[in-house]
């Protein structure tokens, strides 16, 4: 009979099959040891009880031989075979069931007992104890000729042949089969949810991330696996959705300056009377806007969880330097504490402060306030303007890439909408945060970074 290759592959790759085979092999070993031990224990226990009784019968009969009189044998229900045999093998006295032939040819020495099993040809085996009559009794009755007493019984059916071993082995096989079958079913039940999760995961594609895997109830490993898989799919779907939205917004933002640039160039080609240098000069602002958007996109894409070129940065000194560089626009008033040290990238942190100051000056009426101070285990930079402020419903939206409010479009029509998104990405990369908080007037930006320790 040949074995199909696909079935061999299933057993080699299936956890259920491997676990079942392993348990079967271990159970065979364990059951074999238990079966052998059980057989030895049972056999020893039965033999010990029988030989104890045969010895008692033999000793009592020998002890009753005194005063020149040999009493008849006294067999019992458990020891029906009792004989007295001389040194020549002649039966001197015997019980009614012992017969006239010696039960054994064993000749033990004085004060010694031999427990033997005799199996005459064509007859059931006999378990008996052979005992030698003491010397002083032999002199009294037979002038010193050795005589022997045999007391025995038929071998119990459980010990005949290999019945005990056969039935024990059969029970062991049934136990192994039951154990293996139970393991196969239990492993299948345990792995069934995993197989269901695998099948559902195979149905999920990049075009449809809305499917979720079945989530078993409970708190075991498989339940946690299902929850983790669904949480991962949620994050993946959100990330893909954001990526698609981001790509759409990028395409839209680049399409406008590209269209203006193409229009100007096509106009110069279609109308020879238009001065080429003048047409190129009109197209340069669109090209500059495209370059600025692309540069900011590259910076946004290069940010990772951990910024490069880390060094101790004094946020107070950094804020003072960036505020001093803002010589145009509304004045900037600074308030800083000494030694507000963080571990980060100086250039990136400076760009955050600069972006926040530029944004605040654009929306401020008379003044911008910026402070750098300690707040527990964090460094805190606060940029406050006295402008119109931002509605609470738009406080998170302003940090989205290319998101621009109406006031921002009016005050900076050529902006890309990536400045605040870059600022937040830099803050997150430094294990910090950037958010808008409540303020009685104007916008209140708060940058928090972990203080440098040690």
From TrEMBL:
Keyword Kinase annotated: yes
SUPFAM superfamilies cross-referenced by the UniProt entry: ATPase domain of HSP90 chaperone/DNA topoisomerase II/histidine kinase, HAMP domain-like, Homodimeric domain of signal transducing histidine kinase
Entry GO MF terms: kinase activity
CDD domains in the cross-refs: HAMP, HisKA
Subcellular location: Cell membrane
SMART domains: HAMP, HATPase_c, HisKA
Catalytic function, reaction form: ATP + protein L-histidine = ADP + protein N-phospho-L-histidine
Known EC number: 2.7.13.3
Organism for this UniProt entry: Microbispora hainanensis
HAMP domain span: 188-241
Cross-referenced InterPro entries: HAMP_dom, HATPase_C_sf, HATPase_dom, His_kinase_dom, HisK_dim/P_dom, HisK_dim/P_sf, Sig_transdc_His_kin-like_C, TCS_sensor_his_kinase
Stretches assigned to the Histidine kinase domain: 249-453
Transmembrane parts of this sequence: 20-42, 166-184
A Pfam family recorded for this sequence: HATPase_c
Protein name per its UniProtKB record: histidine kinase
Keywords of this entry: Kinase, Membrane, Phosphoprotein, Transferase, Transmembrane, Transmembrane helix, Two-component regulatory system
PANTHER family the record matches: SENSOR HISTIDINE KINASE TRCS (PTHR45436:SF5), SENSOR HISTIDINE KINASE YKOH (PTHR45436)
């Amino acid at each position: 009979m040949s074995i199909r290759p696909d079935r061999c592959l299933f057993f080699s790759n299936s956890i259920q099959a491997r676990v079942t085979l392993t348990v079967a092999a271990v159970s065979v070993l364990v059951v074999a040891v238990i079966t052998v031990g059980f057989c030895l224990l049972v056999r020893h226990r039965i033999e010990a009880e029988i030989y104890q009784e045969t010895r008692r019968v033999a000793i009592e009969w020998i002890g009753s031989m005194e005063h020149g009189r040999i009493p008849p044998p006294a067999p019992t229900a458990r020891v029906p075979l009792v004989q007295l045999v001389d040194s020549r093998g002649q039966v001197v006295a015997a019980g009614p069931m012992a017969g006239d032939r010696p039960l054994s040819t064993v000749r033990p020495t004085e004060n010694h007992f031999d427990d033997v099993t005799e199996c005459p040809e064509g007859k059931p085996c006999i378990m008996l104890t052979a005992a030698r009559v003491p010397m002083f009794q032999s002199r009294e009755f037979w002038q010193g000729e050795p005589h022997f007493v045999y007391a025995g019984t038929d071998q119990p059916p459980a010990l005949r042949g290999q019945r005990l071993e056969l039935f024990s082995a059969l029970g062991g096989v049934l136990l192994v089969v039951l154990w293996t079958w139970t393991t196969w079913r239990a492993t299948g039940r345990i792995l069934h949810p995993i197989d269901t999760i695998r099948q559902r995961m195979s149905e999920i594609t990049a075009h449809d991330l809305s499917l979720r895997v079945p989530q078993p109830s409970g708190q075991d490993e498989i339940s946690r696996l299902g929850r983790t898989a669904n949480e991962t799919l949620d994050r993946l779907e959100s990330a893909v959705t954001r990526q698609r939205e981001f790509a759409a917004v990028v395409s839209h933002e680049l399409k406008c300056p590209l269209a203006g640039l193409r229009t100007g160039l096509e106009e110069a080609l279609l109308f020879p009377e238009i001065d080429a240098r003048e047409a190129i000069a009109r197209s340069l602002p669109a090209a500059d806007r495209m370059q600025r958007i692309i540069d900011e996109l590259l910076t946004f894409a290069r940010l990772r969880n951990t910024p490069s070129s880390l060094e101790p940065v004094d946020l107070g000194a950094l804020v003072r330097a960036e505020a001093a560089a803002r010589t145009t626009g509304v004045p900037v008033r600074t308030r800083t504490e000494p030694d507000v040290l963080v571990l980060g990238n100086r250039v990136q942190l400076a760009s955050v402060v600069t972006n926040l100051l530029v944004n605040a000056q654009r929306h401020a009426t008379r003044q911008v306030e910026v402070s750098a101070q300690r707040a527990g285990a964090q460094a805190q930079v606060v940029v406050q303007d006295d402008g119109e402020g931002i509605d609470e419903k738009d406080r998170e939206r302003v940090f989205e890439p290319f998101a621009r409010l109406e006031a921002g479009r009016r005050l900076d029509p050529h902006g890309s909408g990536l400045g605040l998104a870059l600022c937040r990405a830099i803050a997150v990369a430094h294990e910090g945060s950037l958010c808008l908080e409540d303020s009685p007037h104007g916008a209140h930006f708060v940058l928090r970074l972990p203080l440098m320790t040690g």
